[in-house]
Amino acid sequence: MPASPGASTSNPVEHEIVVSVPATTVYRLVSTVANWPRIFPSVVHVERVEPLTRGERIQVWEVVDGESRIWTSTRTFDPYGLRIDFQDEQPGLSEAPLEGSWIIESRSATESGVRLRRWGPGTGDAAGEADRRCRSELAALKSQLESAHAASELTFSFTDTVQIDGAAKDVYDFINDAQRWQERLPHVARVRLAEELPGLQTLEMDTKAADGSTHTTTSYRVAFEPRRIAYRQFTLPALMTLHTGIWTFKDHGAGTAASSQHTVVLNADNIVGVLGPDADVAQARDYVRTALSTNSTATLRLAKEYAERRRR
Description:
This protein is an alpha+beta fold. The chain has helices at residues 23-31, 36-39, 124-150, 168-176, 181-184, 271-275, 281-311; strands at 13-19, 43-52, 55-64, 67-78, 83-89, 98-106, 112-119, 155-164, 188-197, 200-208, 214-224, 228-235, 240-251, 256-266. The N and C termini lie far apart (52 Å).
């Protein structure tokens, strides 16, 4: 359902920012939920759960101020007017659903105005929380949209795949059972796994790099048994400003194709400090890809041994 002024309060609350990104690019980034982990710092993962005539219903997993949350939203698109209307169901965020609109307006060929208009709780703590969240979202959105638009050479994705003569469920179990990685994976020095909400996991690890250094990372994972595990790292190594990924497990009759997909945004400010005065973006890409690919491939190969042993 599109938002309407009479839904919760008679007067909408509106916030606005100006971003140095073309309006059509802003609309594309906000309307495509696959981009949300890049442009909303709290978002772990988003799933499109139901297509609608002029929009979609989505489910969102996010972490706000250390608190895990899962909610759904119905969105209606107006690509010609560069507008997205939404109605959120937000347990724990407010006493009433939050409704509103994203409205993007072109200011010039390179600049846009982004308005977030909402109808929600009119007074009290719930209204204050909704207002704080809108302001926070817009401030983060400005920074992330401009970074995403400007950092094309810093962004890359890749996938490693291992063919396994075993069941997808066994491979899934090996990856999902991360609390045992310290004993199963030689590059993991310490691990802590918690699940505050069903299917939304917190994974904290110390991993050992090839040069002998140890890196601490914190990730949130969303498990879709037995086919996928999506994740986003919130505590990152110095060379990255974003790292998201998806483990996938596909039966193909003779066995399972197990894949680890990574999407990375490099931290350009830290390249020289980490890799030396002569390092450039290409070297940083190779370094990060090699490090991530080495660990994910090693994990998949150990999952292969586990699943094939169980089949035998």
